[in-house]
Amino acid sequence: MSRERRIRVASRPLQCAAIAVLFSCAFPALTQSPQPASPKAPEAGTTDTITLDRVIAVINRQVILQSDLEDEMQLSVLDPSTIGNARDTKQQALDRLISRTLIQQQIQQENIPAAEPTPAEIAARLKEIRTDLPACVRADCASDDGWKEFLAHHELSPARVDKYLRNRLQILSFIELRFRQGIRITPEEIETYYRETLLPQYPSGQTPLPLQQVSTRIEEILLQQRVNALFDTWLSNLRTQGQIQVLDSTLERASAEDGASKE
Questions:
Q1: Does residue 75 contact residue 25 with C-beta atoms inside 8 Å?
Q2: Is the pLDDT of residue 167 over 90?
Q3: CA dihedral defined by 88, 91, 96, 100, rounded to 10 degrees?
Q4: Which residues in 202-240 are b (16+ Cβ under 10 Å) and which e?
Q5: Which residues pair with 64 in a beta bridge?
Q6: Choosing a second label site near 96 at 20 to 30 A (CA), which of 78, 151, 199, 258?
Q7: Which helix (H) or strand (E) segment is 236 a member of?
Q8: What does the alpha-carbon distance between residue 169 and residue 161 come to, in Å, rounded to a whole number?
Q9: What percent of the chain stands above pLDDT 70?
Q10: Where in the chain are the domains?
Q11: What angle do CA 231, 225, 95 make, to 5 degrees?
């Protein structure tokens, strides 16, 4: 392994957990007051079971359905930020759905167009998942057979994964347009990060890379940190100011308990 790969600097934009956790799957349909589809009645003489979808939360008059929550939990297997959990809970999934719904509503209000990801960008992100995601490494997703088996095991289809990646990249594009512009990282900040954060990571006796060689990557890290802080504050304000109603009593109790534990 080269010395360059040992240092903890990255040039990939917006790869911070606080942002990534919000985009682990596609957004629910964005309409002002959608109604769950009416179930099809069974034919006479049959005993088919009717499965009813139900509203579990309302975010500024936009509903989140039980099926949205189930879809979120199923697709969370593709999100590296959820791998550390023994099991993705319903409350964690609902929190992500609420946050993304608020973000999507703001995108519509602010009319900031998110760049449509190119096929090459989607393919590159898919390659990262298949080769870097711990669950995928264990399942040998890098091979076609391993990837097919992984999708089948989690009841996912290539089309759903493609939609997941497309929506994630679109929202990351919005975040970059919304928060990154106007941020300036000074040479002094880059030098401070190099001296106080990067250099201590080198083992004793190993010659560190010169500042000039890693300054661009350090600037990217500092930009990510600044964007992340702005985004966190913005999202917190959206949740405070928005009208959020959790209609499922069990999820509502879990939300209150989670908030108390954080305090």
A1: yes
A2: no
A3: 150
A4: eeeeeeebebeebbebbbbbbbbebbbeebeeebeebee
A5: 57
A6: 151
A7: helix 211-241
A8: 12
A9: 73
A10: 14-28+54-201+209-262
A11: 40
The CATH number of domain 14-28+54-201+209-262, selected from 1.20.1090.10, 3.40.630.30, 1.10.4030.10, 3.40.190.10: 1.10.4030.10
Query: Token pair of 19, please?
Result: 């942002």
Phi, psi of 89 (to 5 degrees): -80, 160
Residue 12 has pLDDT above 90, yes or no: no
Considering only CA atoms, give the Rg of the chain. Answer: 22
Which is nearest to 254 in space by CA: 262, 148, 155?
262
Residues 6+ apart with CB under 8 A from 253: none
DSSP 8-class letter at 61: T
Look at strands 55-59 and 62-65 and give their pairing. Answer: antiparallel
In angstroms, the CA 74 to CA 42 distance is: 28
Output the pLDDT for position 55.
93
Provide mean pLDDT across the span 23-47. Answer: 43
Element (H or E) spanning 246, and its range? strand 244-246
Token couple for 51: 């499965």
